[in-house]
Specification:
The chain folds into three domains: 103 residues, Orthogonal Bundle (Helix Hairpins); 142 residues, DNA methylase specificity domains (Adenine-n6-DNA-methyltransferase TaqI, Chain A, domain 2, Alpha-Beta Complex), CATH 3.90.220; 146 residues, DNA methylase specificity domains (Adenine-n6-DNA-methyltransferase TaqI, Chain A, domain 2, Alpha-Beta Complex). Helices cover 31% and strands 22% of the residues. It contains ten helices and 26 strands. The strands form ten sheets. The protein has a four-stranded antiparallel sheet with strand order 5-14-11-12, with helices on one face. Helix 5 runs antiparallel to helix 10. The chain is elongated, with a radius of gyration of 28 Å. It starts with 6 loop residues before the first strand and ends with a strand. The relative contact order is 0.12.
Length: 427
């Protein structure tokens, strides 16, 4: 990733209609740095010869994460000629000005646009698509305030054209855009690594959790083929005591002297506690529900039914809420970490789907969870499987933390570079 150095502070500023900007920057109307604004349109959907051609055509719904994320439809040259759409050349700016205001993208190739979108052809002698893309992204919330109308919210052309921007010298614009694009590329690369690593783990889990390590002989069971040395057993028979339902009290504001209150909404999809949802529970109410090392929670109802959480002592003192069910795996039969891995496999997800009856309120109770039949390797092999999968989990966690760091860096750089609070040196 590009080294963000050679930055300078000690900048002199001047007052403008959009606030203080560096003395050598300009406050300019967007229309003054644009050669043309192009409207979009939709060819008549009843005329077949306008559709299924070789020209990609997009609406505001095709934008995701400030990129053109998908091409769902194509039109023909007749469709272009006989409608209000326009083809925006590759590399120019696409601004969603109706039904999704606040989305932007740079055209990845020549592309036709719907009436949701305005194509912006910039004057390359004054600015660049890349710089405007980052500038408008940084000011997306402000741009949304230009919306007018009730039935279809949108930005009028004259309002977009008169929108004021702060404009550094062209060379500085290019350097700012290059830095931000490079950081953004690093986020994409990290995303790709995370995705690939998760795919590797998924395939490995399928093999390890059904065929184990080094087995030659297998047997058929009610959950499929497993090694002859394994057993297929009900979860309830592998746990100590009966399943327990959590506390039915309201959460209170975070208090580090009280237990954390673990609710379904506090657990991420990968089974870890979220940092930004921390709330507490009164100590007296919490006492019967304090979690111990190895306690395993299942969500029993609602949209998140089936979600799981394994308590670890490093999560601090916690008590669990009523929409979750506690199981205590017997460590002589079932290691909690093995259950955790199993509960993030297709085997488990398919079981959950099978338990949720169409049309019924999503719910899986303690008795039903107890009846979940799972593959049970010997304890030593459970440890080996956990060890292998934990290495991959650590890699995913490391890459996820790295991505969060880069995203924070990107946000900070946008704040200081696009306002001139910190300047890039041009030589």
């Amino acid at each position: 990733m590009i080294q963000v150095k050679s930055l300078q502070t000690g900048i002199k500023f001047k007052d403008t209609p959009i606030g203080k900007i560096p003395v050598d920057w300009e406050a300019a109307k967007l229309g003054d740095v644009v050669l043309a604004f192009y409207n979009g349109g939709t060819p008549n959907t009843k005329i077949k010869e306008y559709w299924d051609g070789n020209i990609p055509w997009i609406t505001g719904a095709d934008f995701l994460d400030q990129k053109v994320s998908q091409i769902r439809k194509h039109i023909t040259h007749k469709g272009v000629t006989n409608s209000a759409t326009n083809i925006i050349p590759k590399g120019n700016l696409l601004v969603v000005t109706r039904t999704g205001v606040g989305k932007f993208a740079i055209a990845p190739f020549d592309i036709a646009i719907s009436q949701d979108i305005t194509g912006v052809i910039v004057d390359q002698h004054k600015t660049t698509s890349d710089f405007l893309y980052w500038y408008l992204n940084h000011h997306a919330k402000q741009l949304k305030t230009l919306k007018q109308g009730t039935s279809i919210n949108g930005i009028l052309r004259e309002d977009l054209s008169s929108y004021l921007i702060s404009l550094p010298p062209l060379l500085e614009q290019n350097k700012i855009a290059k830095i931000l694009t490079t950081v953004d590329d690093a986020i994409k690369e990290t995303d790709a690594i995370i995705k690939k690593t998760k795919e590797i783990k998924k395939g490995l889990m399928q093999k390890l959790l059904t065929h184990g390590i080094g087995h030659k002989k297998f047997k058929k069971t009610e959950i499929g083929e497993i090694p002859v040395e394994w057993n297929a057993m009900k979860l309830g028979d592998l746990c100590s005591g009966k399943p327990e339902y959590g506390a039915n009290v309201s959460a209170i504001d975070r208090n580090d002297n009280l237990p954390r209150y673990v609710r379904i909404t506090d657990v991420s999809d990968n089974g870890h506690l979220l940092r930004n949802t921390w709330q507490s529970i009164n100590r007296k109410a919490a006492e019967p529900y304090i979690l111990k090392e190895g306690d395993f929670l299942f969500a029993r109802s609602g949209a998140t039914v089936g979600k799981t959480y394994l308590y670890r002592k490093e999560d601090g003192e916690c008590a669990f809420a009523g929409y979750m069910i506690r199981f205590r795996p017997n460590p002589l039969k079932l290691l909690p970490e093995f259950l955790f891995q199993l509960a993030h496999s297709d085997f488990y997800y398919n079981w959950v789907k099978g338990m949720l009856r169409a049309g019924a309120q999503p719910n899986i109770n303690g008795t039903e969870y107890s009846g979940l039949i799972i593959p049970k390797p010997p304890i030593n092999e459970q440890k080996e499987i956990i060890s292998i999968l934990s290495v991959i989990d650590k890699e995913i966690d490391n890459e996820t933390n790295h991505k969060q760091y880069i995203e924070t860096l990107k946000k900070s750089l946008m704040q200081v570079l696009l306002t001139g609070r910190i300047r890039v040196k041009l030589h």
